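Quick entry between incubations.
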Amino acid sequence: MAIEDYRGDVEMCCRCSACKHIPLQMVKGVEHSYACPSIARYNFHAYSGGGRLLIAKEMLNSGFKYTDKLLDIVYNCQMCGGCDTSCKYAMDMEVLEPIYEFRIRCVETGHTNPALDKVINSLRKQGTMVPGAKGKRAAWAQGMGIKDATKEKVDVYYHVGCLTSYDKDYQKLARATAKILKKAGVDFGIGYENESCCGGRAFQMGYKDDFLKQAKKNMDMLKKAGVKTLVTGCADGYQAFKVLYDKYNLKGDLEVLHITEYLARLIKEGKLKLNKKVNLTVTYHDPCYLGRLGEPWIHWQGKKIPGYKFVFDPPKVYRRGTYGVYEPPREVLKSVPGVKLFEMDRIKEYAWCCGAGGGVNESNPEFAKWTATERIEEAESTGAEAIVTACPWCEKNFNQAIKESGSDLKVYDIVEIVEKAI
Amino acid sequence: MALSKDVYKEFEDVVGAENISDDPAIKDAYRSPDLTVILPGSTEEVAAVIKLCNKHKIPYKAQSTGWMLFAPTYDFIFMDLRRMNRIIEINEKNMYAVVEPYVISAELMAELFKRGMICNVKGSGSTCTALAMSGHGHMGMTTSTGDRNDLATEWVTDEGEIVRLGTLGASDEWFCGDGPGPSLRGVYRGGGVITRQATKVYHWPGPSEYPLEGLSPRYTLSKKPSEMNMMVRYFSFPSIGKLIEAELKIGESEIAFELMGFCPSMVSSNITTSNEEDFETLEQFTREVQGPGFMVIIVGNFDEDFAYKKKVLAQIIKETDGESLKAVEDPDAEATLLFQCTRVCASIRETFRAGGMFSSMMVQGQRYDNHVRWLEEAAVLKRELIEKGLVIADDGQQFGWGEEGGHLGHTEIFCRYNPYDEKSSKAVQEWLAKVGKRALDGCFAVPSMGILPVDVIGKRASNYHIWFGKLKEAFDPNGVGENTGFSYVGADTSGVHTSIYQKPEKASPKK
Amino acid sequence: MAGNESLVKIFGAKNVLDDAETLEEYSGDFSFVSPVRPRCVVKPKNADEVQKLVKWANDKRTPLVPVSSGSPHFRGDTVPGIGGAVVVDLSGMKKIIRVDRAHRVAMVEPGVTFAELIPAVEKEGLRLNMPLLPRKSKTVIGSMLEREPVVMPKYHWDISDPLACVEVVFGTGDMFRTGQAAGPGTIEEQWAAGGAQKTPYGPGPAAWYRLIQGAQGTMGIVTWASLRCEILPKLEEPFLVGSAELDRLLELVHWLVRMRLVNECFVLNDSNLAAIMARKFPGEYQDIKDTLPPWVLFFNLAGYDYFPEDRVSSQIKGVSDITKRIGLEADKAVGGVSAVEMLKMVKRPSPEPYWKLGGKGACHDIFFITTYDKLEGQIGVMNDVANKSGYPALDMGVYLQPIVQGSNCHCEFNLFYDPQDPVELERVKELSAEAVNCLMATGAFFSRPYDRSARMIINRDAAYVDALNRVKTILDPNHVMNPGKLCF
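Done. Structure below.
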């Protein structure tokens, strides 16, 4: 698919501005009613989902004019899909897909963002999205006796992810995950130096070819290792393996689970017992790529039925954010003795983004921080002591925002809470 | 229009570099190749921008939330007011709320619900501005309509003068917008920018927050409407005559929270989550209804009140041979209609989803029974378009709703179509013109926005266009403001209806 | 008749009056504005004559002072502001043009009084939302154009209600129809098409009627107006609630109005309620007053065509839930006043003599719009000003009328006095000027400024005055319409 394939969708935009807000029924007041960080921060209509479609429509008609402002608009978006879900509450049309394709077109034509180029260069050189990553990918696992899934058969392959592998501050998540899986008696392994970036973040940044390269590389390795079930603690990784790989027919029959789904399953089956009390009031942040964008890909091919209605043969089934991963992380949190869960105003399919997605944390750290700060404030308004997420990118971005704002809010990944309880 | 560097700088000095742009990408999103977009953040900035427009004779247009896709047709300064998004005050005791232009109705309604109150929500839906403006809404039976909800108002004229109406000017308070002496509420829709306004709010006996469950796009309520003393029903009637009889009786007996003259297609759009499901449901409804119909929402203040209202409704329906549409009696469908119509005021699903666009002929503020003969003719003409495959094949009906207990009302008929299909667009425009002309020739009403030239209509309506022109001249001597002298009763300057772009005649911008 | 020949040509000799007695009568009223003798008084019979007159006035640059109600007048707005004016007495235009039950609307000429219109609409099953006991000579149009408060806040959606559409001869001499009446078609053609003259705003973006209301005749002369009417109830159940605690009573008012449980609803102090109910002064007045608590709320429940008993009983339940919560009790009588009697009174104009004049022969009203929370303080300020001036605050009437469905409250102080007593007259004159100043400082909003303080009130906001003058320049460029009033 290319941006041209979405002409019908971009023409469907009626400029109702639903994309700027969370689904209207869920608006709980004048606070926390916005869905899209980009329009909320930059205010010109061009930065909204609908504005992006209008730009696409105009450029499809009269050619692409790559001004600095256009690229500013294009890259100041976390690709969080908030606009897509809000629009599709009422409409039958794609919003995020054409936005992806527009960004891909920018990259393909050489209109890239230098900060993102740097990240992609690192990916190309080192197979990781953490520029300047030093040392071995699995250094964190030293001495833990974790199986190498490329060398011996395991029930579960744990894909650790770039940030968790390389960022010293977040390697704790990998160690916590391994500790929990061991405790539950799971036969699991990791890829050690054969693990490579999932490519999901590269796709979000518009570098589709790099994404495909990574996807193929990963799937070759997994196939060779005979992996049937993949578990990851990274929301980007989850969405890449589960949704994007499927979109490009690369996933095969690999079962992809986010760690929260897997933990919920282990808890339900009685294999993981959470006995220790963790006295903490928390609120849960739904990562975009685990929540609304974690919804399975729907393979559909069809043609618009000629005429005045925007309908297709066969009928198109839209991904509307309904089937993302929302309950498993909540079930896990509720299983931890002592943990009290307070919900924020924007949750599940209409959760506010942490700010890190789409390469924004590299291309515009100030905007990433602004977006995170909005979320921190929302979390604080629930009265919770901690915000819990299920993605290292969210955790890192929240921590950076908190560091500068001086908030007392604690930030955890869900595996850290579970680790405390075992 | 490319402003000269110096002039651009003057505007930039008012709002800051971050809040002004004439980049092609920005302009594309505002649907015009020839404008400079400015994001003022306060009344003072709005006034300063307008003063600069006057100084340089540059036309401007301001927009609160905007709605629909109408391309501006001339060069100008475009003020997007979205940075002005604060609720200034909600006064429960005196039943008003004060908002800036980019507070949307969904936000204000959510805040009001918590306080046992509601406001009028425009038919365009709750993504639109909560300023009272002229929008007519589905809950008009209870929440009045259009400009009748305005109280004190802060108005920046087309010359950039800040005028504070009513109590705002007298004592910096918001409870009254009229006087001293004649009320300037009579003129501010003619131009300028409303920067803050108090709007009347109303009692809401329902929950402080709907007990919503599920995930988008299918939310439901965890409680049945009846458990909250609420009921939604759709009734069809053997004839328009019977429908009108029922509508008037319901209005006079003061039992309806909302009386919305949905066609079956509007009901099916609202309770379904895709086009395919919508058209299947519509087929089913079309088989089940006996004729034209409307939806009624009953809300009880307390048990006895709820029981009384239901009893009267049953009696009126019996007397008028109405039949309830069974599908709506299902508590899930009932619940969906309830929160769609009281919180969101529906709209997007029923207007845009099928074809991307709709065009309407409407008369705001006048009761359905006044215009039904005319719009029945319009419906016949619309069905011809349906048969030719030019517009969406819905039930083709006109619809209306009651306002202020049936004192006033709203009448409308629209075609849904694909705006990029030239044949469809042309056919719809011709249909509108035909229906509009018939409105004048039949002495029914002033037809809605932009259908016929203003002077054609004005000559048939007390030459109002001439008088309006004089008002415009008096408040906008440099002709920089939007020419809002269009035709429908109770227009607005909010940009909710942006079809009103008309190039001001006087201002000749410096190139 | 010298100099008025052209007027005689328009109106006929008997409708142009310039005898000394008539000119004296129209030269002043109960207000404190200085009397000015008009040049003559004309009595138009139809809109055509009005239009000719306005054109004549523009030619001759002669001021016109429109008046529709009969005497006595109270507010100074019909007293010529400058010499040489022609008073346009519209009281003879008495046609009730239409009463339309289905649309709940009536259309009347300017001379039609409440006393005349009430039975006409009742015949059709309708009623008026009217001011509190207007004097017998008060016209419906006069009241509406002055935005007088009405007694049923539930049906007072907008401050302009119950006015619907008007036909007006602007100060330019041009004829204009507002709202739904504007067109297309003649009024008769609109009726034939199934329409009514009901929707007030428009045509176009402006709401022309709002510029004519509150203008005290400075924009043009209305030759007919339509007004919304309400359904005549089948069953009514009035109540009174007495209390010494005004804030508690106002809390009750807020909820009754907010929940739309009641039709008529207002608060009077003991002096005003006694003045309304007494037929003999001072004996009966004082007797009634002595039985009353300081404040009395009157409200009325109504049932219409469908199961009226059920409706009223459900509303009684609703009301009693509120009164219990607030700690008040609604009764059928308070002191010597019965709720049923009160209801009978408020459905009609005041009996003769006018209730404001019965006690002492004259009355000066100070009224403004305010909010519930400020009322107690404002009443305190007024009491202080009155007492300080030597006018016993306890003798003063107070009328509190929730308006615009509870968004505001009309507050009115009635200063009864003996016009023959120069000391008393001077005292009321001085204290009223002082009171307006003091009350404005408390946020009292004088939306309808009359009398000597009008100019001071309106001129406080220069931007507003400038905007009003731009409108005035369009509708009355030669300033022939009631010059000297408001800021014109």
